[in-house]
Specification:
Elements: H1 2-5, H2 9-33, H3 41-60, H4 67-96, E1 101-103, E2 109-111
Antiparallel strand pairs: 1-2
């Protein structure tokens, strides 16, 4: 399994989930609060995955050109950024238009009339 991810599990957890995962969190938040479209999450996630691969290679003797590791990093980081994007988008919709919308859970909003958004 470690050959597929191109590093050891502790390095994957530390670099991909904690370090670049925090960067993905902040990326999703920044994209949502600046009203960017959701598709911007994908290219930024790919760039973060490349940075994650480089950090594993430079600091922990990982495999730089691990295709499976890069794809796994990209999927995890894009997912983190997309989830945060949606949560902050819902927050921004309710904050920007308080007369029209109200929160409907963490990821949603609805019209004050009742229809879900």
């Amino acid at each position: 399994m470690e050959s597929m991810i191109g590093s050891t599990w502790p390095v994957f957890i530390g670099v991909t989930l904690v370090l670049t995962g925090f960067c993905a969190f902040m990326t999703g938040r920044a994209l949502a609060t600046t009203w960017r479209p959701v598709w911007h999450v994908a290219p930024y996630g790919v760039l973060l995955a490349a940075a994650s691969r480089f950090l594993k290679y430079a600091l922990y003797d990982g495999v730089l050109l691990s295709g499976g590791g890069f794809v796994l990093d990209a999927v995890v980081l894009i997912a983190i950024a997309a989830i945060v994007y949606r949560a902050y988008q819902a927050k921004m919709m309710v904050k920007q238009y308080p007369w029209a919308f109200e929160r409907a859970g963490i990821f949603g909003w609805r019209d004050k009339g009742g229809a879900a958004g």
